[in-house]
Design a protein that fits this description.
The chain contains 26 helices and 26 strands. It is α+β, with helices and mostly antiparallel strands. The strands form 7 sheets. Strands 6-5-4-7-8-10-9-11-14 form a 9-stranded mixed β-sheet, sandwiched between helices.
């Protein structure tokens, strides 16, 4: 694959060092572990990089043995000679592109903390956080990769100092971002995204641009991870940790060997980036698909940032194509967990050679889609939820049996918890191969839950962890060339993990479990001894939550989130709700009877029972079939719509989130949609309707019958008082800050409960004792 630009930072990954030396990647990791004088890596996010000059000096005293010489090499040559020569070949066509030196991980984190804190709120205004993230990522890409465009941005900033009109900077920035992505087939509306930002001041916008530009190359991934944590993204939106993506690539690809790599759920591009580090210089190809257009721009910018010409599409109309041209040698993917089909044809059009997946859960639909995307004999690494390995669902159990008996699943590795920024849930990595019959009569199970190192609230898989697992697993998978592979599996304790090869016929029992914990031995009649690392993690987790509470309290003490006596609402506007909002009741029972509802696939239907603390639950109880829902478009909800109880006991109205777009109103609810957001902020109106007097007003006007009902005509007369729009937004920010503090305290309490439970295991086992 042709790079979009060439890097000359003087920093190399282990895979790049291995490729230039024509050795395996684990060999480089073994050197780092065995030799104390091996160069110290520089961390960039989750990635370890090595200075090229230091590697060259270290290799200068290491001669090549006769059996290690390549064709044409003299016996006197050293590894440094080979390293330098391959670097000259690579640099012959290189053009300097990056214009800034790399920074330390601490420096990158400081820059990202500044960007994603108050500065983000001051620059985006009412715009979604994703639009501010687009601004940061594009500026970071341009600063590091396209010096001519960066000089143009600097000129725009200098010229704008006189007028200080934010749109005069955001407009050209949006044009540049849009044109850059469109050169690579990405149609994301970056101009509209950046123009939606409403900075409080010109200085705030310029500060954000300069902070993003001043961050090192490792900050790109940190911004996306911070966004995941801050916005509480769903499983479908998590970014894939760099260490996890690197492990998946190590287990399926050979550095420098040409291959076509495909990711059917690209997320932020992390899997494709890891693949490119293995196959890019060999002329391999990486490409991906995404079902979420918002993430396509992130993936495209991330790949461009790394020097990869992106090939990411988001125009797949059929989620599960029944027929597919098999063109990928390797598939690497991290699909969404435990989620059901998006609106569309759904799995009815899918091809399920291992069995039809259950309704409402696509885990095994993704597994089968991945296998069909491979060429015969092709390999895949798929991130899966741990519970998929031993779920009791009949359909999933039967699919697991088919995968085992046909040889499609070769290895399952359970990984540490807290790998993801937004969730502590542990995951597993399934290694699959498209074959007609098993190549080995066993399945390899690996428990690697204790690997990785603690980094803030997360665990990070290090290159040494990846190398240790890869050395055992790759040798076992390719056992024909490694006669000691089976013996290696039995000696993994010193590497920090355990493994066992289980005959396929032993797996095909009642549960057909693919969970490593069900096959690795326990610890006697009272179970396995408690793990010290888990107690340490629980203590660290509680401390991290405590730190977050203290940080939020310190932030709340600042002037921006305080309040003071005001003159009262006498000079505010007061307008009937019917003039501020379009009021629409939900579908009547005559048009959508109870018999038309379903608990399986379909569009969620909103009922008052789904209201939880001013929000709508992400797990609705009822749905409507896709075909029927198409007839009721005008009853859909949009983000920032407000839903009130129409029939039944009144409760706090709920605000619709972005993930709930296109859900449908039931007969028991009423939708409020603000006519002019420039006049009244929907979030302010939602808070106002939650006030005691507003809720009492609605309760009193509901018909006093056995089933209270609030008619739209009556609701339209509720009078709403509001200040100017800027003051509305400040009110919302103060209330949102209190909400975040309340959630932080709740999380802190939960983490203390987890620490108590883990400490009980140790105290009552005797592995620790009270002071």
């Amino acid at each position: 694959m042709e790079p979009a630009h060439d890097e000359q930072t003087g920093l190399l990954t282990r895979a790049q060092i291995a490729h230039r030396l024509r050795v395996s990647r684990p060999a480089v990791s073994n050197w780092a572990r065995r030799y104390e004088d091996f160069p110290t890596p520089v961390r960039s996010g989750d990635m370890e990089l090595f200075r090229e000059a230091e590697i060259g000096r270290w290799l200068a005293v290491r001669a090549l043995r006769p059996r290690q010489l390549l064709k044409g090499e003299r016996e006197s040559r050293t590894y440094a000679d080979r390293f330098a020569r391959s670097g000259e070949r690579r640099g012959a066509a290189a053009k300097p592109a990056r214009t800034s030196s790399p920074q330390s991980e601490d420096e990158d984190r400081k820059a990202v903390d500044q960007l994603m804190g108050r500065l983000a709120d001051r620059v985006r205004g009412p715009a979604p956080m994703a639009d501010f993230v687009n601004l940061c990522l594009f500026v970071m890409y341009v600063r590091h990769a396209e010096p001519e465009q960066w000089r143009r941005i600097e000129d725009l900033v200098a010229a704008g100092q006189e007028t200080q009109d934010a749109r005069e900077l955001l407009g050209p920035l949006g044009d540049m971002a849009r044109n850059t992505l469109r050169r690579y087939g990405d149609r994301t509306d970056m101009r509209g995204s950046l123009l939606s930002l409403q900075p409080r001041s010109w200085d705030d916008l310029v500060a954000a641009v300069h902070t993003a530009a001043g961050a090192g190359s490792g900050a790109f991934q940190l911004v996306w991870e911070s966004f995941s944590v801050r916005e509480g993204l769903q499983s479908s939106e998590f970014c894939s940790p760099v260490g996890l993506a690197s492990l998946a690539a190590d287990l399926t690809l050979v550095p420098g060997e040409k291959a076509t790599v495909f990711d059917p759920y690209t997320r932020g591009g992390e899997m494709l980036a890891a693949a490119y580090r293995h196959v890019g210089e060999a002329g391999g190809t990486v490409y991906g698909e995404t079902l979420d257009g918002r993430l396509q721009s992130v993936a495209s910018l991330y790949l461009l940032h790394l020097g990869v010409r992106p090939r990411v599409s988001s125009n797949r109309s059929d989620r599960w194509p029944p027929l597919r041209e098999h063109q990928a040698d390797v598939v690497l993917t991290n699909p969404p967990f435990n989620m059901s089909d998006v609106p569309g044809p759904g799995r009815r059009t899918g091809n399920w050679p291992y069995g039809a997946p259950p309704r409402g859960n696509d885990n095994f639909a993704w597994v089968q889609y991945v296998l069909q995307a491979l060429v015969p004999g092709g390999r895949a690494a798929v991130v899966m939820p741990v519970k998929a390995g031993n779920s009791v669902n009949t359909a999933e159990r039967e699919i697991r049996a088919a995968l085992v008996s046909t040889g499609a699943v070769e290895c399952v590795i359970v990984l540490p918890p807290h790998l993801f920024s937004a969730t502590p849930v542990p995951v597993s990595l399934w290694l699959l191969r498209r074959v007609e019959r098993p190549l080995r009569q066993e399945v390899l199970f690996v428990d690697a839950q204790e690997l990785g190192e603690k980094n803030r609230r997360r665990r990070v898989l290090r290159d040494t962890d990846s190398a240790a697992v890869t050395a055992v697993v790759r040798a076992w998978l390719d056992a024909a060339g490694h006669p000691q592979a089976d013996e290696d599996v039995l000696h993994t304790a010193d590497r920090g993990f355990s493994a066992v090869a289980v005959p396929r016929e032993d797996i095909l029992g009642d549960d057909c479990s693919l969970h490593p914990g069900d096959h690795l031995s326990g610890g006697g009649p009272y179970g396995a001894a408690p793990v010290a690392a888990r107690l340490s993690e629980a203590a660290d987790d509680a401390a991290a939550h405590g730190d977050r509470v203290r940080l939020l309290e310190q932030r709340a003490a600042g002037p921006e989130y305080g309040y003071r006596p005001g003159p009262g609402p006498d000079r505010w506007e007061e307008v009937p709700l019917g003039k501020l909002c379009e009021i629409r009741p939900g579908l009547s029972y005559a048009r959508l009877p109870a018999a038309a509802r379903t608990d399986g696939d379909g569009v969620p239907l909103i009922f008052p029972q789904d209201f939880v603390g001013g929000r709508i639950s992400d797990e609705p109880r009822h749905r409507v079939a896709w075909q029927m829902a198409e007839r009721f478009k005008k009853f859909e909800v949009h983000p920032n719509d407000i839903v009130c109880v129409r029939t039944g006991a009144q409760q706090q109205p709920a605000l619709v989130s972005g993930s709930q777009a296109a859900w449908l109103l039931s007969a028991n609810v009423t939708r409020l949609r603000v006519r002019s957001p420039a006049e009244i902020d929907p979030r302010y109106l939602h808070a106002y309707l939650g006030l005691r007097h507003a809720r009492e007003w609605m309760s009193h006007r509901a018909a006093a019958t056995a089933a209270p009902s609030l008619r739209s005509a009556a609701l339209a007369h509720l009078r709403v008082r509001f200040p100017p729009i800027e003051q509305q937004r400040r009110c919302v920010e103060v209330l949102h800050d209190l909400h975040r503090r309340a959630e932080a305290y709740a999380s802190y309490a939960a983490s203390l409960g987890g620490l108590r439970a883990e400490l009980a295991e140790h105290l009552l086992h005797g592995s620790v004792e009270p002071l």
